[in-house]
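User: I'm designing a mutation panel for RNase H type-1 domain-containing protein and want to avoid disrupting the core. Could you give me a predicted structure to guide residue selection? Please restate the sequence first so the numbering is unambiguous.

Assistant: Good idea. Sequence first, for numbering, then the predicted C-alpha cells:
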Amino acid sequence: MARKKKNHISSLLDVEGRSQDSEECMAAVVSDFFASLFMSTNPSPQDNYLWLSSMVGRNKRIMFNDITDRVWKKLRGWKDSYFSFGRKETLIKAVVQAIPTYPMSIFKLPVSVCKDISAMAFKFWWDSREGKRKTSWISWENLCTPKGNGGMGFKNLSLFNQALLAKQAWRILSVPNSLAVQVLKVKYFKKVNFLEALLKSGCSHIWRSLSWGRELLSRGYRWTVRDGKSIRVFKDQWIPSPTTFKPLTRDSGQDIHVSDLIDSSQRGWNLEKLDLLLIPVNKAAILSIPDERNTQLNKGKAKDPGKLVTWVAGLLKLNIAATIRNNYVLVGLGATIRDGKRKIMVAGSNLLYGSFSVDIGHLLALRESLMLAKFYNFPVRFPEVSSAEVISSLYSHISSLRDVKFIVLDIQALLSEVGFCKCHFVPKLGNVLAQNLASIAFSSAREHLWPDLSLSTFSFPL
C-alpha cells in the first residue's frame, strides 16, 4: 500500500525576502507576522497591549498588578489636595473605577485585585493617609449601594466585572457569525451551543472568564417565542415566571418543542395540550406570551378578507384600541382607517385568547391594523393609540414592553412600509369608535371586517 505524504511547509520568506527553512527561523517569521498585525515590535511574553499582558500564566495576580499600580499613582497624586465629598465621588467613579473597565470586559480579575482597588478608593474617600487614619463612618459595602437606598452608588468591582463578561457572553449569542465567536466555537463548543458548553481542563483564561459571565446571564435570559421550533419545552428558559423560567411538568420524560404547543389553525396556543402537559400556573404564564399570529399578511400570502376597497388619494388616519375581559384571558382588538373627510375606508375587530396586558393588546392591534393597511395599499400617515407605553416602546429605549421586542420591531418595519408614519397618543375620548369595535369582538370568536362604512353606521369624533 502506498504511503500518503503529509502536507508540510518546507520554508517561509521573512520580511527581507530571504528563505528560512529551519523550524526555529520559520517560527520566528510567523511570530513576526502576527506581531505586525497587532502593532507589536517585540512579541515577548512580557509584551503589553492596552495595559494587558499578551501571556496569562498561573499567577493571575502578576498579570493585573499594572492596574493596581495605575490606580495607586492616580490616588497618590491627589493625597495632598483637599477635595469635597462631591469631587471625591466624581474622581472615584470617573477615574479610579474606570481604569480597570477594559480589562474587566475581557478577563475575570482576581478577587484580591478588586479588593485592593476598592480599599484604596475607600481610604481616599475618608481622607486616610499614610500613618494617619481617620474614622470610617460607613463601610464600603454600604457606600456601594444605590443612592436611593442610602449609599453613594460606587461599583462593586467584582460584580461589575461579572456583568461586563455577561455582556460579552450575550454578544456571543446575539452575533454568532463574528470572527471571535467562530474561533471560540471551533475550540470550545463545536458540537453544542454556547449555553451548554462545559469548562475543560487546560482552557484559556478568556474562556473561563466568559463562562463566569455566562453564569450571570443564565439567571435572567429567556427565549423569545416565535415559531417555537428551536425551543425545548422542558429544558430551555422561555416562560415569564422567574426564577427558573422553565415549566413544571407532570411527565418530565417528554422531549417536545414549543411549536408542538401552538395550534396553527387557530393562530394561538393549543389549550388541550397545555392542560395535559403543564400545571395551571405555567399555563397562565404561557398564555401571557404573544406568538407570531397573523404574520401571513406581512408575508403577502393572506387570503382575501373580503371586498377590496378602492384606494383614495390623500392622507389616512388609523385608530386602534384593545380591551381585556374575563380576568385577562380574552383580548378584543378594534381598528379603523379613515380619510380626512371622516369616511371610514375599513374597520375591523378581532378576538385573541391569552393573558395579555392592555399595552401588549394595543401592540398586537397596531401590528394587525398596519398589516391590513399594507394589504389594502393604504397610505396611512397618522396612527393613533390610546396607550402612552406603546408610544414609549416605539420611540424610546426605556419601556416595560421589552419582552415583546419582536412585535415592536415588526411594527417599526410596517410603519415605514405603509407611508413612513409616526404613531401619536390620543385619549380614549378621541378613540371611541375603535374602543367600541374592540368591545364588539367579544360577541363573536372570529375576525370581522367592514369596508366602506358610512357615518350613519358609526359616530365618532374626528
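For picking mutation sites, this is relevant: The two ends are 90 Å apart (CA to CA). The chain is about 40% helix and 10% strand.
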